[in-house]
Design the sequence.
C-alpha cells in the first residue's frame, strides 16, 4: 500500500476507535454530574426569588428531571446521535447554539496560546540548551521557574493593573470594545488588541513547561551517538543543533502540547474569568453552579472530541517529524 | 442704521436671557456601559425578580406607575388614578398614544392580561401583591378598573416597572408565560429597545425613538457588560471602560479606594424601595434553637456595629426591629423594641441562657450548631467568622458551612436541613410585600425559597398580619404593626442583623441615573452624560 493510502486507513481506523471512547466518556460524565446535590430547578427557583412547590414539580417534569437516571441517560444518548445536544433551560437556548457561539473565542484564545507558548518555549529551551550553564541558561531556567510558580489569576490581574490601568496600552477586559460596534478589519484589529493580555497570561504558565522540556530533551539528544558521528563527519555545530538534534528533541514537546490542548479548555477558566473572555471554560464553570447538566454534557462531549482529534493529529505529526516512527 | 440698532438690542437681550439659563443642560447622545453582575438567566422580569434581570428589564418595560426619590407615586403608563372610598376599586386612566416596540398600540387589554394572566399566576410576588384583585374591567382602550375583594393599600406600592412590568398581550396570548420567546427578546413600551444579547459578553439596548415621554431618553444606547471577576470590574470602572455599577458590583473594599478619585462617584441612594436587611433564620422546630431564650441571647451578643464597620466598610445601619427603619416614612416602624441593643450585652445574654436552663458544660459549651452562610460573596464568609467568635464567647460553638447556591437553597428551603442560616432579604416598599413572608403560618411552604423557613407559627401574629395588610387607616395600621414588632422582638424567630446599604459606583460624568426611586432598577430615561 502506498504511504498516503496507509495513512488514510490509519486515520479512519483511529476515528472508528474513537467512537466507543467518546460514548464511554459521555456515560461516565452523566453519572458523575448527577452525583451533585440540587438540580437546575432549585437554581431557577432560587434566582426567581420564590416559586411554589407545584411550579417546581411542573418544571422538573418539563425538563425530564423526574425520570429515573437510566431513562434520562438513554434519552440523552438518543438525542446526541441525531446532533441534538439538548436544550439549556437556564439560557433558554439549544446547547449546540450556545456551545458553537462560545467556541470561536475559545479557539482564538487556545490557538494563540499554543502558538505563543510552544513557539517561545521551544526557542527559549533551545537557547538554554545551546548555552548550557552560562548566564543565558540560568536566566532562562529561573524565568521558567518563576512563571510556573506564580498563580495565573495574580499574573492576569497584575497585567491589568500595569498594562491596562497604569500604562493604558491595552483594554482591561472583554473580547471587543462594545461601545464602538466596529465591523470588518477594524473589528479584527480590536479583537486582536483585546487578545494580547489574556494570551500572554495563559501562555506564561505553559511556556515554562515547554522551555524546561525542550531544554532537557535537547540535552538528552546531544549526548546520543549520532551527534558524535555528525561531528566526526565535519558538520557545523549549528547544523547539528538546529537541524538534526532539534527535530528529534521536538517529539516530547509535541506530545506534551497535544495533551495540553485538552487541558486548555478547562484551564482557561481562570483567564476567562479575570479578563471576561467569553469562552467555553467560563460557560462550563457557570453551568456547574447552575446545575445545567445538558450544557455541561455538551461541553464535555465537545472537549472529548477535540482531545481525540488532537491526539490523532499529534500522532501524524510524529510520523512526519520522525519517519522511523511507523504509525500505520 | 436703524436695523443695526435693533439687531444689536435683540442680540443684547438674547445674550442676557441665555446667560440666565442653567449651566448644565442635559445633552443627548452617548453610550452607557453598565455592569450587570452576574449575567441574568433571561430578561423576563414578569417571571423572576432576580437582581440582574432587574438591572436591564425596567429599561425596556414600563409599569403603570413610577416612584420618585421620595417614594411618592408618579404617573407612568397610567396618567391618573383614583382609589374608591372603601378601597375596593382602583381606576386607572391610561396614557394615549403609547406604542409597543413593535409598533402595536398599548391598551387596557394589555393591563388586564398582564395582571390577571401573568403576574397573578407566575410572578414570584404577584400572587401575593395582587391577591385581592378579583377582576379588571376595561370599558375602553384607555381605562382599567381593578375590582378588589378587600382593600389593599400595599398594592399601590407594587406598580413600578421592576415589580410589575406591563407586557404585550398580543405576543404572550395563547402561550405558557413561562416559556414565551419574549423572555430573551423583550418587547416593551420603555425608553430603550432590546437589540441583541451576546451570551457571556453583553446586552445591547438602543434608544426608543418613539418613546411616549417627549425628548427622552437622552442616551443613544445602553450596554450591560458581564465581567465575572470583581477585581477586573474595579479596574474597568477605574479606567472608564464601564460607567455604572450597582448592588455591590464593585466590592466594598475597592469602593473605599475608588471614592477618593475625582472621576468616580459613590452613593448609597436609590435603594429605598428595596430595603435590604440581613438576618439569621433559625430552625425553630429543633434544638437548640427551639427555645426563644437562646435566639434572644444571640441578638444581644452580636455587635452589629462591628459587622458594619469591618465587613461592610461602614455601609449599613444596625437593625433595631423586624421592620426596617425606612418604614418610619409611612409610620409603620416602631422604635424601642427589646432585644436589639445598641451595644452588645454579653452579661445579659449569659443571664438569659442561665435562666432558661441552658448551662455550660465542663468545656464551657452550652450549645453546638452549624451556621449556614449565603454563598453570595466573601463578605458573608467574614461575617460568619465573626459570629463564630462572638457566639463562642457565650458558649455557643459554631461550625461554618459555605456551599454553592443550588446546594444551599435545597438544604435550607427544600429539606429544612439547617439550624442557623445567614441570609438577606428585600423588605420592599411595604411590609406585606417583603416582611410577612418570614413570619406567617401560611408562608410555611416547603420547597419554596425565601419564605418562612424557620417554621415559626403564632396564631395571634397571623391575625395581626392579616388585619394589618387590609387596614386602610394609617393610624390603625401603625398600631397593628407596632404590636407585630413587639411580638417578633420577644419571640425572635429570626434575628435581624443590619439594614444593608448597597452602593452605586458611577462615573462622575454620568448624571440623572438616580432620577427614579428605584435607582439602578429604574428606567434611566433621564440619564445623560456631561462632557
Sequence:
Amino acid at each position: 500500500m502506498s504511504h498516503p493510502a496507509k495513512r488514510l486507513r490509519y486515520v479512519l481506523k483511529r476515528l472508528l476507535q474513537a467512537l466507543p471512547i467518546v460514548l464511554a466518556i459521555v456515560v461516565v460524565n452523566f453519572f458523575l454530574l448527577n452525583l451533585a446535590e440540587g438540580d437546575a430547578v432549585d437554581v431557577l427557583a432560587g434566582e426567581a426569588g420564590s416559586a411554589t412547590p407545584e411550579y417546581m414539580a411542573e418544571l422538573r417534569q418539563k425538563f425530564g428531571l423526574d425520570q429515573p437516571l437510566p431513562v434520562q441517560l438513554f434519552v440523552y444518548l438518543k438525542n446526541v446521535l441525531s446532533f441534538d445536544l439538548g436544550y439549556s433551560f437556564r439560557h433558554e437556548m439549544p446547547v449546540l447554539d450556545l456551545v458553537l457561539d462560545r467556541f470561536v473565542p475559545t479557539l482564538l484564545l487556545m490557538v494563540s496560546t499554543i502558538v505563543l507558548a510552544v513557539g517561545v518555549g521551544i526557542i527559549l529551551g533551545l537557547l538554554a540548551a545551546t548555552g548550557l550553564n552560562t548566564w543565558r541558561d540560568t536566566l532562562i531556567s529561573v524565568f521558567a521557574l518563576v512563571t510556573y510558580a506564580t498563580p495565573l489569576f495574580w499574573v492576569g490581574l497584575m497585567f491589568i493593573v500595569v498594562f491596562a490601568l497604569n500604562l493604558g496600552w491595552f483594554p482591561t477586559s472583554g473580547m471587543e470594545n462594545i461601545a464602538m460596534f466596529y465591523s470588518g478589519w477594524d473589528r479584527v484589529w480590536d479583537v486582536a488588541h483585546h487578545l494580547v493580555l489574556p494570551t500572554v497570561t495563559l501562555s506564561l504558565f505553559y511556556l515554562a513547561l515547554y522551555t524546561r522540556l525542550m531544554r532537557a530533551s535537547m540535552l538528552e539528544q546531544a549526548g546520543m551517538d549520532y551527534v558524535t558521528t555528525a561531528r566526526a563527519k565535519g558538520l557545523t555545530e549549528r547544523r547539528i543543533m538546529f537541524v538534526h538534534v532539534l527535530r528529534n528533541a521536538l517529539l516530547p514537546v509535541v506530545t506534551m502540547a497535544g495533551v495540553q490542548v485538552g487541558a486548555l479548555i478547562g484551564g482557561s477558566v481562570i483567564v476567562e474569568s479575570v479578563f471576561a473572555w467569553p469562552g467555553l471554560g467560563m460557560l462550563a464553570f457557570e453551568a456547574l453552579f447552575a446545575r445545567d447538566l445538558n450544557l455541561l454534557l455538551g461541553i464535555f462531549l465537545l472537549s472529548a472530541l477535540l482531545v481525540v482529534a488532537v491526539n490523532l493529529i499529534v500522532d501524524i505529526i510524529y510520523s512526519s517529524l520522525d519517519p522511523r516512527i511507523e504509525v500505520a | 442704521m436703524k436695523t443695526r440698532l435693533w439687531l444689536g438690542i435683540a442680540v443684547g437681550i438674547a445674550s442676557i436671557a441665555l446667560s440666565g439659563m442653567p449651566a448644565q443642560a442635559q445633552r443627548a447622545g452617548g453610550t452607557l456601559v453598565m455592569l450587570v453582575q452576574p449575567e441574568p438567566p433571561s430578561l423576563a422580569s414578569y417571571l423572576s425578580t432576580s437582581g440582574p434581570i432587574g438591572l436591564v428589564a425596567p429599561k425596556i418595560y414600563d409599569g403603570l406607575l413610577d416612584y420618585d426619590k421620595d417614594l411618592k407615586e408618579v404617573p407612568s403608563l397610567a396618567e391618573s388614578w383614583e382609589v374608591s372610598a372603601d378601597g375596593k376599586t382602583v381606576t386607572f386612566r391610561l396614557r394615549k398614544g403609547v406604542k409597543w416596540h413593535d409598533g402595536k398600540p398599548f391598551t387596557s387589554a394589555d393591563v388586564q392580561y398582564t395582571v390577571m394572566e401573568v403576574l397573578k399566576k407566575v410572578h414570584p410576588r404577584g400572587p401575593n401583591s395582587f391577591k385581592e384583585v378579583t377582576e379588571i374591567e376595561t370599558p375602553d382602550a384607555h381605562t382599567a378598573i381593578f375590582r378588589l375583594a378587600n382593600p389593599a393599600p400595599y398594592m399601590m406600592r407594587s406598580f413600578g416597572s421592576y415589580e410589575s412590568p406591563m407586557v404585550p398581550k398580543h405576543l404572550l396570548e395563547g402561550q405558557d408565560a413561562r416559556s414565551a420567546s419574549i423572555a430573551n427578546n423583550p418587547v416593551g413600551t420603555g425608553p430603550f429597545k432590546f437589540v441583541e444579547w451576546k451570551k457571556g459578553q453583553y446586552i445591547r439596548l438602543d434608544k426608543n425613538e418613539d418613546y411616549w415621554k417627549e425628548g427622552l431618553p437622552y442616551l443613544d444606547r445602553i450596554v450591560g457588560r458581564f465581567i465575572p471577576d470583581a477585581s477586573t470590574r474595579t479596574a474597568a470602572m477605574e479606567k472608564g471602560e464601564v460607567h455604572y455599577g450597582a448592588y455591590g458590583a464593585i466590592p466594598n473594599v475597592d469602593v473605599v479606594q475608588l471614592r477618593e478619585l475625582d472621576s468616580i462617584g459613590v452613593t448609597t441612594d436609590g435603594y429605598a424601595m428595596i430595603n435590604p436587611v440581613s438576618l439569621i433564620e433559625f430552625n425553630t422546630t429543633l434544638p437548640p434553637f427551639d427555645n426563644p431564650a437562646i435566639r434572644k441571647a444571640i441578638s444581644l451578643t452580636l455587635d452589629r456595629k462591628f459587622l458594619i464597620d469591618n465587613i461592610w466598610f461602614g455601609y449599613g445601619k444596625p437593625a433595631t426591629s423586624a421592620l426596617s427603619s425606612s418604614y418610619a416614612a409611612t409610620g409603620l416602624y416602631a422604635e424601642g423594641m427589646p432585644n436589639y441593643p445598641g451595644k452588645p450585652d454579653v452579661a445579659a445574654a449569659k443571664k438569659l441562657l442561665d435562666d432558661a436552663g441552658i448551662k455550660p458544660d465542663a468545656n464551657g459549651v452550652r450549645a453546638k450548631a452549624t451556621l449556614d452562610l449565603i454563598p453570595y460573596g466573601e463578605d458573608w464568609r467574614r461575617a460568619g467568622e465573626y459570629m463564630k467568635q462572638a457566639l463562642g464567647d457565650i458558649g455557643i460553638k459554631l461550625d461554618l458551612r459555605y456551599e454553592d447556591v443550588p446546594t444551599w437553597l435545597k438544604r435550607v428551603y427544600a429539606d429544612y436541613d439547617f439550624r442557623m442560616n445567614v441570609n438577606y432579604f428585600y423588605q420592599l416598599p411595604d411590609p406585606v410585600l417583603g416582611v410577612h413572608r418570614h413570619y406567617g403560618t401560611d408562608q410555611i411552604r416547603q420547597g419554596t425559597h425565601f419564605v418562612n423557613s424557620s417554621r415559626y407559627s403564632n396564631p395571634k401574629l397571623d391575625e395581626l398580619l392579616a388585619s394589618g395588610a387590609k387596614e386602610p387607616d394609617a393610624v390603625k395600621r401603625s398600631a397593628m404593626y407596632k404590636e407585630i414588632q413587639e411580638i417578633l422582638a420577644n419571640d425572635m424567630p429570626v434575628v435581624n442583623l443590619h439594614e444593608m446599604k448597597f452602593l452605586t459606583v458611577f462615573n462622575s460624568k454620568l448624571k440623572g441615573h438616580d432620577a427614579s426611586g428605584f435607582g439602578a432598577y429604574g428606567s434611566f430615561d433621564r440619564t445623560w452624560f456631561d462632557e
Notes: The longest helix of chain A spans residues 185-222. The mean pLDDT of chain A is 84. The radius of gyration of chain A is 24 Å. Chain A touches chain B through 53 residues (CB under 8 Å).
